[in-house]
Amino acid sequence: MNAWLNRFPVSLPERLTSPEETAALELRSALPELAVSLEKKEEMGEGFCLRRVGDRIRLLGGETGLLYGAWFLMYFCRLGGGTLPDHVESAPRYSLRMINCWDNPDGTVERGYAGMSLFFRGGRLAWDPARIRTLARMMASCSLNVLCINNVNVHDPAQLLLEDGLPDLARLAAEFRPFGVRLMVSVDYSQPMRHGIPTADPLDAQVQAWWQETAARVYRAVPDLAGFLVKADSEGRPGPFTYGRSHAEGANMLAEALRPWGGMLVWRCFVYNCRQDWRDTETDRPKAAWDHYASLDGQFADNVILQIKNGPFDFQVREPLSPLLLGMPNTHKALELQLAQEYTGHQIDLYTMAPMWQEIFRDLPEDRIMAIAAVSNWGDDANYTGHPLAAVNLFTYGLLAWNPGVDPREIVSLWVRLTYDFSPEDKGTLVALMLSSRRVYEKYTAPLGIGWMVTPHDHYGPNPSGYEYDLWGTYHKANREAVGIDRTTSGTGYLDQYPPELRDRYENPRTCPDLYLLFFHRLPYAWRMKDGRTLIQRIYDDHFEGLRETLEMQQKLQRLPFPEEDRNIILERMERQVHNAREWCDVINTFFFRLSGVPDGHGRRIYD
Amino acid sequence: MNAWLNRFPVSLPERLTSPEETAALELRSALPELAVSLEKKEEMGEGFCLRRVGDRIRLLGGETGLLYGAWFLMYFCRLGGGTLPDHVESAPRYSLRMINCWDNPDGTVERGYAGMSLFFRGGRLAWDPARIRTLARMMASCSLNVLCINNVNVHDPAQLLLEDGLPDLARLAAEFRPFGVRLMVSVDYSQPMRHGIPTADPLDAQVQAWWQETAARVYRAVPDLAGFLVKADSEGRPGPFTYGRSHAEGANMLAEALRPWGGMLVWRCFVYNCRQDWRDTETDRPKAAWDHYASLDGQFADNVILQIKNGPFDFQVREPLSPLLLGMPNTHKALELQLAQEYTGHQIDLYTMAPMWQEIFRDLPEDRIMAIAAVSNWGDDANYTGHPLAAVNLFTYGLLAWNPGVDPREIVSLWVRLTYDFSPEDKGTLVALMLSSRRVYEKYTAPLGIGWMVTPHDHYGPNPSGYEYDLWGTYHKANREAVGIDRTTSGTGYLDQYPPELRDRYENPRTCPDLYLLFFHRLPYAWRMKDGRTLIQRIYDDHFEGLRETLEMQQKLQRLPFPEEDRNIILERMERQVHNAREWCDVINTFFFRLSGVPDGHGRRIYD
Predict the structure, then answer these.
(1) Residue A1 has what pLDDT?
(2) A466 to chain B: which residues are within 8 Å by CB?
(3) Among B183, B206, B272, B454, which residue is least crowded by beta carbons within 10 Å?
(4) Is the pLDDT of residue A412 over 50?
(5) What is the predicted pLDDT for the residue at A77?
(6) Does one domain contain both A170 and A230?
């Protein structure tokens, strides 16, 4: 079983009838001493209200609201919060709090670092009911309510989920339903063509009819399906561009098919030229999403949601907020995060995401989006997330999706208290260490927001020029004098996509925050940073510091009283992280030293 | 059917009894007008003698000598050589003229660029008899007489060739026998451990007994097996080092097991540290073979042959001769070449190897080796070698293995005359183009002998720093001032492994031939070449020239009257080669421009 759930052992029957029943069973098991009455108020939906009258507690809520209220109460009591206030009320900020699994029908997980798929084996749905129930419970315990089970890159035969696989899909949906979780399916835009229709053109009547019939068939099997998720015209996926149609036309056609059933159509905006010529300096990949979508504002049906990654590139350690999230006021938008540590250490390196998400919500007014999604970081490893401490990212994401106003650092602290029986001092050490982990990782990897200096394809470990002459639009153009791409108005113009206050923050390299400096600017190595150091010295310093702090982190972790099973995994991975950090530090420093010829100002060893 | 054999159509019966019978059938089919009497003289072995007495021709030879004599006569007559001299005598310089296939039991071919294996499917031997007969005939027609059918990296279940697979092996040997070809098998040094023996230590009596019994069993099934081929203690392969034994002890134990049956033990010398730390400047990979083997001279049994790659690295476009080939006077040695175009264009780019091999034999006295081997370039593509013109490398290799004294350029010319029905002018164009192809490829790829600027693992296309921070010992250490590794006496000392005349040729960068300059020296970009150009300008010039010459090559090829099937393949690959050459040219020039800051002296465009 996983992490924080260990505190709440329960034995649930194999057949649960409703979230309300689940809530009651959870409460009876976790808080048998407490007299709690559950009162279902359909109109409250996912929200709940707790009223204390003396020793008695009334929990009011919609069906799933009761379940979320139960978990609130369980956390509150388990953490010794004292007397429950007379009145507690809560409702989720976003009604769709989604997990996207990149699971393939053959059981592999794209960018998965915690084992194989929990849902697929040998081309079809197949699962261990006990593990699925735990997973569903994990989701409920942190308020997640939509689960897209298959990869957005729909590899054959994942299309069968909408065809022969429907009975399995319905059985799986039944496993999740008592935990308030609805399924979603990634669909292949060209699927009608598997059925003798010569086109997938969204304006073709046959195509429209096929999707309408398919939606009807799917919803008869899974009436509460959340909807479809689509990656179209992206990295080789088919889409409406093939037929000269806009993405509004493409998405609306599917949305129309889902409308009678209340289904949503989630449409990913990860569209860019992934066959860019490295010699082409006109194209600037971060501009792509805005360029493709901004002009379509207001044209999408009201059950379409555009799902936009947090940054304009692709889940790098540090990116500014995607400007598209701030634009398109007349379009439903969802923020997409990635729990899977694709570019952030493969769940080998410790990387707690809360500080990163805090930055996102600092710049993203809550009301600009109406839903939130994250790529899962789980698999069939015994602990679900590979690295035991990676579970915090799932938990934090869930609570943040309920209430993005909470400081995510508080959630990390809560998770540690729930997960480990530590002294206050040890708890403080671990929380501090987790909260610093992203910054440490950032220091020893690519400098100051430049990103992409990773081993191509695999994305673990350094390769400073691995993508430099490739097709992916991710260049640093480091030469003997300078490094970076000028994305200001006088450069590629990417910064013009932002509202004035953000553009002003980044536009001037003298005032641009250091950590974003090389994301937006091309600067000489001799550039003076605000603190007086040169750019090249800052690069060296960060890398030496990152390595040193990793070694310190290792020492601290070794002293913490983790349960043995977790301890073994954590320390073994920490050793690999130390190796990784040393490799990054030396490779990146050598790379810049060979280019710049500038020795370290403190005489530390840089290999030549 | 393949290339030059098209000139000699024949229908051979499914069951052939001997090379002598094959020779007679070939002659009858190819030269029905000629009265040739075959006279077997066992003592002549592979040699033959042709005597003309008026209209009658006597062909004398050992059993396979008759077959080689028949092919000599067929080539001579088909090419209209005029009257046969009264007396022709020939015998091979090396008695083992070997092909090494890197074929895996699953049907893939490691570094194969012409389709799948001709021998393996689904974990076992399986073949198309007609194609195998053509392959055997192809080998006979260019004198090749030993065929090692499985990869030196013995992947499970290739070990079964010595066990359950023996009946299949015997049937395959029978297919090749009438063409004078004997099989050889790559073996896994740890194979005894699959049979309950807890060690593979060569000094262990149980291990020795297992190999002796195995050899006996194998030779009962295939009495004329040429022997075993072993890659030990290399790139993860098991070997005697595991048990603290020398490679002489390791090889001799296997040789002992083969001795009663007349088998040879071919032992590859491709041993180096493939887990080198890029920060380590003491280790220099080209030194590895000499360091591992030279001190063992005289210690190997007389049926052991050390197989040594032509260069000290690994089949780069240009390497100096491996010094080990010139050393170890009291050891049997074989030269290993690679027909498969691993680093030389994947049989997409045109690359005729004759000029490269001519350089090898210029420096390698014939008597320093007693055998010759080459990694195959064939697969189950209809034309066997993928690129129709790649067949020339197989043909040239065979004839060169018979007589390394021949100018291999002559063989290329012969192959073209045999293969295409061209006018003398077109023939001249094609031969010139083929003979220049290696130099053109060299120009647009890594400069002046430095090698390794290829896409890691795949080895097609440029990646100037792809191996720079990796474990393989292949570094150029280019910085803003200079590039290369100093391998002279004052550097890593690699040059000290050579005899004086070769050391003197390379030691001084002022006199070292340009094309080897960066193999042996670290030089500043401002270095003055013999012709007055700077090193950096020479790099730019070569790359622009290489691209221009590739475009010219394309135009010439388009005008040549190839048969349609060949033409389509040749021109389609040529298009890919042009793309490849442009990519190399621009990436390498940009890489050095970013480092050096020196613009092109002729104002040509280098991307920044």
Answers:
(1) 45
(2) 466
(3) B206
(4) yes
(5) 93
(6) yes
pLDDT band for A2, please (50, 70, 90 cuts).
Answer: low
Contacts of B593 in chain A (CB under 8 A): 479
Q: Is the pLDDT of residue B83 over 80?
A: yes
Judging contacts by C-beta atoms under 8 Å, the chain B residues touching residue A463 are 465-466, 469
- Please identify, among A39, A66, A90, the residue that sits at the C-terminal boundary of a domain: A90
Phi and psi dihedrals of B40, rounded to 5? -80, 125
Average pLDDT, chain B: 96
- Report the number of secondary-structure helices (H) and strands (E) in chain A: 15, 16
Q: What is the CATH number of the domain that holds A201?
A: 3.20.20.80
Is B490 inside any structural domain?
A: no
- Read off the pLDDT of each residue in A489-500 and give the average, rounded to a whole number: 97
Which of B275, B282, B457, B465 to substitute to test the interface with A, most A CBs within 10 Å? B465
Only one residue has tokens 């297992």, namely B210
Q: Tell whether A28 is within 8 A of chain B (Cβ).
A: no
What is the reported pLDDT for B483?
98
CATH code of A24's domain:
3.30.379.10
Is residue B16 domain-shared with residue B139, that is, in the same domain?
no
Determine the distance in angstroms separating the CA of B277 from the nearest CA of chain A, rounded to an integer.
Answer: 10
Mean pLDDT of A564-592: 98
- Same structural domain for residues B187 and B170? yes
Q: Judge if pTM exceeds 0.90.
A: yes
Residues A86, A100 share a domain = no
Whether A413 and A357 map to the same domain: the answer is yes
Question: What is the residue-averaged pLDDT of chain A?
Answer: 96
Range of the domain at A21: 3-90
> Is A279 at the interface with chain B, CB within 8 A?
yes
Which pLDDT does position B409 carry in this prediction? Answer: 87
| Same domain, residue pair A124 and A206 | yes
Task: Please give the average per-residue pLDDT across B104-113, as a whole number.
Answer: 98
Which residue type does B435 have? L
CB contact under 8 A, A480 and B595: yes
**B598: contact with A, CB 8 A cutoff:** no
Candidates A164, A235, A410, A572; catalytic one: A235
H-state helical runs in A222-311: 247-258, 288-293
A542 CA: distance to closest CA in chain B (Å): 20
- Enumerate the residues of chain A whose CB falls inside 8 A of the CB of residue B278: 587, 607
Q: Which long-range contacts (CB under 8 A, 24 or more apart) does B241-248 make?
A: B242/B200, B242/B201, B243/B199, B243/B200, B243/B201, B243/B202, B243/B203, B243/B204, B245/B201, B245/B202, B245/B203, B246/B296, B246/B299, B247/B271, B247/B292, B247/B293, B247/B296, B248/B296, B248/B299, B248/B300
Nearest in space to B463 (alpha carbons), one of A470, A244, A507: A470
| Residue B517 domain-assigned (yes or no) | no
Q: Evaluate whether residue A321 is within a structural domain.
A: yes
Chosen domain end from B41, B64, B90? B90
What domain count does chain B have?
3
Q: Which of B463, B479, B593 sits opposite A608 (nearest CB)?
A: B479
Instruction: Tell me, yes or no, whether A462 and A585 share the same domain.
Output: yes
Is position A235 annotated as part of the catalytic site? yes
